[in-house]
Write a structure and sequence with these properties.
The structure is a homodimer. Chain A has helices spanning 3-13, 16-28, 35-42, 46-58, 77-88, and strands spanning 33-34, 62-67, 70-75. By secondary structure, chain A is mainly alpha-helical. Chains A and B meet through helix 1, helix 2 and helix 5 of A and helix 1, helix 2 and helix 5 of B.
DNA sequence: TCCATATTTTTATATATATGGAATTATTGA
DNA sequence: TCAATAATTCCATATATATAAAAATATGGA
């Protein structure tokens, strides 16, 4: 991961509404949520939400797929994990015990197959 | 951690120069670095660096102690780890295996005693 | 006490970002 | 083909942020 990508991802998360959106998607799991449902839950005007989702998408933090009229947004866990790895990279000059950073491998990944109707737009 | 604190921390990191400063301090370890040395290594004007260090400090990502004429900045590893915990909180509705997030405990912490000359200003 | 060093604070200016109304595009079902 | 729904893009406005020159503060040594 490049420094510029990390700045983009951090900038995307550094906003109250977007952070809420992202955390909602992280908690929702790989199945994601339709934009309308996010807007409703967070009481955001649709152009506002659309703007924020685009930021998160360009930053590689969420993915989108169409399902009929709805666009389904989901957290991009790979993007998130890459970002966290970048922040802690080579911490304490390699002696991670100096700063309490998790040094273990990620939990074994369960692959979730998404409904494949519609076209993916990244 | 509150959402507002997370936004502050992410905003502090979402800037090219500050991200560089922070990563430099993360890699430098708990002993930290004097402001002048950071400015020199990153070729930043001192008021600019000072502004950025203040942002990181207010966001709880770095600490500062005085040593003679120098102010020594160090990464605040607790702050960083809290932030990452906040982002991944309750991911996949509790089934972390769904997204490959590290679920293990942080490495055992090695406490490093800092030189106690001067006053700590947070 | 005075000077040099290290760093911060103040201030001005330039630039980037957030918001929501209005118009637009895409999809489905009648 | 048309109306209804879901969401986006365009636009104007308000607000926040980054930068560095100049002035101010704190420390240590002569």
């Amino acid at each position: 991961m490049e420094s510029k990508d990390a700045v983009a991802a951090l900038g995307a998360l550094a906003q109250e509404n977007r952070l809420e959106v992202f955390r909602m998607l992280v908690q929702a799991g790989p199945r994601g949520l339709p934009a309308g449902q996010i807007a409703e839950r967070l009481k955001l005007a649709s152009p506002t939400l659309s703007f924020h989702l685009a930021q998160l998408r360009h930053a590689g933090l969420v993915t989108v797929t169409r399902d009929g009229r709805s666009l389904i947004y989901a957290a991009d866990y790979d993007g998130m994990n890459e970002l966290m790895g970048f922040l802690t990279e080579n911490c304490c000059a390699g002696d991670a015990a100096g700063c309490g950073v998790p040094v273990c491998e990620p939990a074994a990944r369960t692959v979730v197959r998404r409904r494949s109707r519609g076209v993916t737009r990244q």
